[in-house]
Amino acid sequence: MPDIVTTDRLAKRYREHPVVHDLDLRIPEGCVYGFLGPNGSGKSTTMKMLLGLVRPSSGEIRIGGRPMRRSTRRELLGGIGSLIETPPGYGHLTGRENMRLVQRLLGLGDGQVARAVRTVRLQDHLDKKVRAYSLGMKQRLGIAMALAREPRLLILDEPTNGLDPAGIEEIRGLLRRLAGDGVTVMVSSHLLGEIDRTATVLGILGGGRLLFQGTRAELFARSAPDVLIDTPDPAYAHSLLSGGFESRLDGTSVRLAGLDDRATAKAVAHLVGAGVDVHGVRRGERSLEDVFMDLTGGGGL
Ligand SMILES: Nc1ncnc2c1ncn2[C@@H]1O[C@H](COP(=O)(O)OP(=O)(O)O)[C@@H](O)[C@H]1O
Ligand SMILES: [Mg+2]
User: Fold this and answer.
1) From ligand 1's centre to the CA of 40, what distance in Å?
2) Are strands 3-14 and 17-23 parallel, antiparallel or unpaired?
3) How far is Cα 272 from Cα 269, in angstroms, rounded to an integer?
C-alpha cells in the first residue's frame, strides 16, 4: 500500500522550545494508524500541523504523495476530515440541524449526509438537541460531520477520551467499519488499551520523538519476550536462576522476563550445567503495555 501521509523531519518549536522533533511519519493508505503517546508528547501538535492549523517550524508534509504548500493546501485539506479536541456542534440545535449546517457549508448532497450519520449510528437520535447527547454521541456527531465530505483520510484526536467502556467500544467498531470502507484513519490516544487492537499500524511518540512506527507484530518482534522453562522441579530451577535473571515461578515452569536469544541460551546452559533436566523452552506472551514500557524506559502511558 502506498502511504497517504508522509512527513520528513517534521518539527515544531515554540519560541526555542522543541515540542516535536524531526518526525518521519509513514501512514499507509487504508490502515487504522494508532498514534500513541503520553500527555504532552506532541500528538495534538503533530495532528494540527497535518491539518494546517499549526505551522511547522521545519520539515515537509506530503498527502497522497503531494507536498503541502501554500498553493496545494486547500485542495489537499479538502480530502481530510478531522475531529480535534472537543467535539464540534451547537448544543442548542438538534443533530439534524447541525448536519444541515455542515451540508450547506460544504455543498454536500443528502446522500452523503445520510451515509455519514448511518456510519456513526446516529440516525435514530437526529431530532434530539445536541446538549442532551452523551459525550459518546457528541463525539460520533463530530465524526459524522468530518465524514460527510467523504474524506480519504480521517484524523481523530483522542476520540475515546472520557468515554465509558460502551462508548469506547462503539468508537472502536466505527474505526473498523471506516477502515473496511477504505478510509484511512489516524487516531491518537494516551491510553494504550483504548485503540490497542483496532489499530493495524502504530506510531508511538515520547517527548516529541517517534519511538516506534510499524505493525503490532513488528513492535512485538522488536522487544525480547519472556521465556518459560519447563522442568520437573521449577522451584529448584528458579532458585538457581534468580541471582542472574529476573525469574519467577509460573505454574509448572520458570518464567524469565524479557530475554533475547543469547541470554536464553545462557540460562538453559546454567540449568543443564547444574544437572537440571530441561524439558522445554518456550516464548511467553507479552502485553502491548509491557512492550511500551520497554520503549519508554518505564515512563508509561
Ligand atoms: N501553543 C503552544 N505554545 C507553547 N507550547 C505548546 C503549545 N501547544 C502545545 N505546547 C506544548 O507542546 C507539548 C506537546 O503538546 P501536545 O501536542 O498538546 O501533546 P499531546 O497532544 O500529546 O498531549 C506540551 O509540552 C505542550 O505544553
Ligand atoms: Mg493532545
Assistant:
1) 6
2) antiparallel
3) 5
Whether pLDDT at 300 is above 50 = no
193-217 pLDDT tens trace: 777 778 999 999 999 999 999 998 8
Question: How many Å is the Cα radius of gyration of the chain?
Answer: 24
274: three-class secondary structure by DSSP: coil
User: Across residues 211-226, what is the average pLDDT?
Assistant: 84
**Nearest alpha carbon to residue 8 among 68, 63, 60, 64:** 60
Measure 118 CA to ligand 2 centroid, in angstroms.
Answer: 28
* Protein residue with its CA nearest to atom 27 in ligand 1: 40
How is the chain split among helix, strand and coil, in percent rounded to 5? 35, 25, 35
pTM: 0.83
CB 152 within 8 A of CB 4: yes
Model confidence pLDDT, tens digit, residues 13-50: 999 899 999 999 999 999 999 999 988 999 999 999 99
Q: Is 203 in the pocket of ligand 1 (CB under 6 A)?
A: no
* Å from CA of 300 to ligand 2 middle: 16
Q: Which domains does the chain have, with CATH numbers?
A: 3-221 (3.40.50.300), 224-285 (3.30.70)
The gap between the terminal CA atoms of the chain, to the nearest Å, is 30
Q: What average pLDDT does this structure show over 176-185?
A: 91
By three-state DSSP, how is residue 175 classified?
A: helix
In whole angstroms, give the CA distance from residue 168 to residue 172.
6
85: left (phi over 0), alpha (psi -120 to 50) or beta: left
Question: Strand pairing of 26-28 and 201-206?
Answer: unpaired
